[in-house]
Amino acid sequence: MNKTDNSVVPRLTQAMENYLLSIYVVQERGLSVTNPNLVEQLRRVPASENLGTSLPAVSGMLRRMEKENLIHLSDSREIDLTSKGRQLAESMIRKHRLAARLVVDLLGVPLHEVDAEAHMLEHALSETLEKRIQHRLGQPKTDPFGQPIPGNGYKEPRNVVTLDKAKIGKLMIVDRIPEDDAKLVAYLCENGILPGVEVVVSDIAPYRGVVTLSVGDGLAVLGYNLSSEIRLRPA
């Protein structure tokens, strides 16, 4: 349960913004925000953000954020956003995903470079510029990776499943792909595994550590450990 807080909003550092964004993403993926899960997500943030991910660095930042009433640490050390923290996290996610949409739709940045560019832009977007981008892009509901943009009327499609839970042989549509692994995104692009594309799961073999997809006239093989981050919906 989120802790309610109505105190003055603190001035966020860039590191705090990245922590809020990372906590939000871990929760969005349906995972508990423990220190190991948070550290794993923080390590996906581009190196240019200069985030420390050692245990002392993470623990120190979490204590600071708790003091600012941005997060709540349970007795089991699970991390949750307060109401204020969630509001600020949603603002960061919105800016990040709008920035991603901007650099793809208007500037033609290759998809595997988008996450790093969006991270640089998100910290600089004012509310005025954010509104102008929203208007210019036509109030997009998702970013280029299929991830929802908070506040833009996104509705979750019915019967969405992760790739590792998909039915073999059934025609599906890619709903969402991960954004924060440039090499993986480049591979997905090369094989046409993008939001809106029809695919058929040919084989799921956790014992071999692979999932095989039929995409168009070809086959693509993905690591089983990554398949839970790709979401599909019925065609």
Can you walk me through this structure?
The structure is a single chain. The chain is of the alpha+beta class. It has two domains: 11-155, Arc Repressor Mutant, subunit A; 161-234, Ferrous iron transport protein A (FeoA) (SH3 type barrels). It has seven helices and eight strands. It has a six-stranded antiparallel β-sheet, with no helix packed on it. Strand 1 (71-73) and strand 2 form a beta hairpin. Helix 1 (14-28) crosses helix 2 and helix 5 packs antiparallel against helix 7. The longest helix is centred in the middle third of the chain and has 23 residues, at 83-105. The chain is globular, with a radius of gyration of 18 Å. The model has no long low-confidence stretch (mean pLDDT 92).
Write the layout of secondary structure elements.
Blueprint: H1 14-28, H2 35-42, H3 55-67, E1 71-73, E2 79-81, H4 83-105, H5 111-122, H6 127-137, E3 161-162, E4 171-176, H7 182-190, E5 198-205, E6 210-215, E7 218-223, E8 231-234
Antiparallel strand pairs: 1-2, 3-8, 4-5, 4-8, 5-6, 6-7
Helix pairs in contact: 1-2, 1-4, 4-5, 4-6, 5-7
Task: Write a brief structural summary.
By secondary structure, this protein is an alpha+beta fold.
| Overall structural domain count | 2
User: Quick one: CATH class of the largest domain?
Assistant: Mainly Alpha
User: What is the count of β-strands?
Assistant: 8
> What composes the largest sheet?
6 strands, antiparallel
Which topology of the largest domain does CATH recognise?
A: Arc Repressor Mutant, subunit A
| Unreliable stretches covering 5 or more consecutive residues | none
Note the overall shape. globular
Tally of alpha and pi helices: 7
Helix content: 25-40%
